[in-house]
Request: fold
Amino acid sequence: MFWSIIGSTAAVFTMFAFIPQIIKALKTKSVKDVSLVTLLQLSLGVTLWIAYGIHLKDAIIITANSITLVTLIILLCLYFNYRRRG
Reply:
């Protein structure tokens, strides 16, 4: 039970880690300080974690990383949208 709570808590922090960056990008309409390489690397890593979670049939791994991937995709869309404008 204890380790499930630890895992779930870690998942929540990971899932929402990019929300502040998304909010900042939306407010400033700038992604000047966002690293494309970092976003792509994290997206690939999270995708592999999803595959691993599917293999293990682990709902926490699948859900947390899927939500994280969605936030990364949103940030990538903002990155390309605001970079194109700038």
Observations:
- Helices lie at 2-15, 19-28, 36-56, 59-85.
- The chain has a mean pLDDT of 94.
